[in-house]
Design goal:
single chain; 388 residues; FAD/NAD(P)-binding domain; D-Amino Acid Oxidase, Chain A, domain 2; 2 domains; eight-stranded mixed beta sheet; 19 strands; binds adenosine-5-diphosphoribose; binds P-hydroxybenzoic acid
Length: 388
Amino acid sequence: MRTQVGIVGAGPAGLMLSLLLQREGISSVVLESRSRAYVEQRVRAGLLEQWARDLLIEIGAGERLQREGLVHDGIRLSCGGALHHIDFRRLVGRIVTIYDQKEVVKDLIALLLDRGGQILFEAEATALDGLGGSSSVIAFRHGGETRALACDVVAGCDGFHGISRPAIPDGVLTVYERGYPFGWLGILSESPPASDELIYAYHERGFALFSMRAPSLSRLYLQCDPDEDPARWPDARIFDELRARLGGSCALAEGRVLQKSVTPMRSVVVEPMQHGRLFLAGDSAHIQPPTGAKGMNLAFADVVFLSRALALHYRHGRTDALDAYSRTCLDRVWKAQRFSWFMTQLLHRFPDETAFDRRRQLADIAYLAGSVAASTALAENYSGLPLE
Ligand code: APR
Ligand code: PHB
């Protein structure tokens, strides 16, 4: 098999890249180790920045998004029994959309296959060769056989646990990393959302997030120990804790818990995001705590930059944008990392915190709630910095 761009991974990054390249007349093949059913059912955060929503519509994958996506003008911060509204539309003229990541993935797969794109499911990439030479080969296992995909360029869109990043020789990458001493217990509940917009709740018992998927489906998160066992959280305990952390600022409806799991939190960035013919994009190069809802949006930004650079390369023989790929992405990645860290440290309890830290957090929230300048900065970052 031969193609121009070999893409490892059919998450948001790999699928969007393949569609963007197709539009530029550049061929690609997506290799995905899991089945189609698996990637279409994976539960993940689902918040689209304004420009990411626009991109999905522009590429032709926005029909269901525009029908079923929940448009939010802003978010609410709950603290000390009060709810503070940060109105993105008023402050920066932008909105965000809640649309489950698995729905995005379903729409992208359907569109790509409909347009004649090539995705091989249950095709696990096992080795990347020739990254420093004139062409590359991705070895993969498919249908019990070992096969090879020859390509000009490899796009490593295989997430944080993929093979692309580890294929880069030792000593080439610098890894910037920060752990957090907590995780999130994520809950999907058959209950109407507590509010028409997301509520980020600061409370002495720990952080809570009240999100949603549909008018009768809530997505809820509770700060917990990073190695917390979800089995220790029967439904009644979950709702008691959510109610306590919401602090009476609005009513919470109870419902059947459909799913619960614990996600640990980490911030990681690797530099550079390129080595020879390999370009990393999305979670393979960076992950961030979900507090800023940046994961899928950053993955899309990376592949927009990569597709533009590849188009310049194939159309005009230019290599400047490809050479600048890592720098271009990292500029945005670090701003998103900063924001995700800011939201995380603002709203969570830390085991080693002091009374000073708590008072500072409260002052920070009061400042955000009361200052147009501070809330504009939050609105600008949350709804997505412009791509250019
Ligand atoms: N061969 C083929 N596919 C692989 C391999 C491999 N060796 N290793 C991993 N994959 C696949 C995974 O099964 C997954 O479907 O790569 C895909 C990577 O997709 P994501 O993890 O969704 O990563 P990305 O596309 O960068 O999207 C980032 O996803 O992790 C969330 O919250 C994160 O929203 C963010 C977004
Ligand atoms: C979600 O709805 O899953 C969600 C929303 C916002 C976040 C994180 C997760 O910051």
